[in-house]
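note to self — DONT lose this again. spent like an hour looking for the file last time. sequence + predicted structure for the chain T wanted, 197 res
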Amino acid sequence: MIAGLRGRVFKVGEDFVLLETPGGVIYKVKVPNFLLSKISKDEEILLYTYTYFSTNGFELYGFEREEELKVFEALLEIPGIGPSMALRVLSDLSISELASAVKTGNVNILKKVKGLGTKKAEMIIFALKDSIFEIGVSDEENQAISEALQALVSLGLDYPKARKLVNMALKEGAKTTEELVMYSLKNKDNIEGGSTL
């Protein structure tokens, strides 16, 4: 089993990266959208990976942090949650948002994930209630992202547009809540979709 890959980003796709290892092998690894927004071609990165086997072969899923991989694996243990949905959860929600939803039992946060209905959202909350806090998922960056998203939504932006703007801000090097919000407000009219302030 491939536990991780280190190499050069050969290509950034819509929901994957092609990663060239030092030995010259190029792997296709599906990654969360959040990570896609932060990396660029020719960058050297390390991905913690999960190998998913099916009748069609196998697929690799990669994550920037071990904590994200552990959450992904925990999601896969939930009936009806496959790798595509688990990856979507980690694409549409930051780790701190997911932890907050589980801790407070807030189904509406989880329902922001495309294709995730009330029943599966409730199953995720029930299944992760104990394990997600043992994983230790909170960190400063995720907290800043969560706070920035809440601020932008409260200011009138819809959630998908706020996520897109925060992703752009991260790619430009913004890290704190204030930096993320300021960048997003400055560039809110430069992207399509969503509400305007």
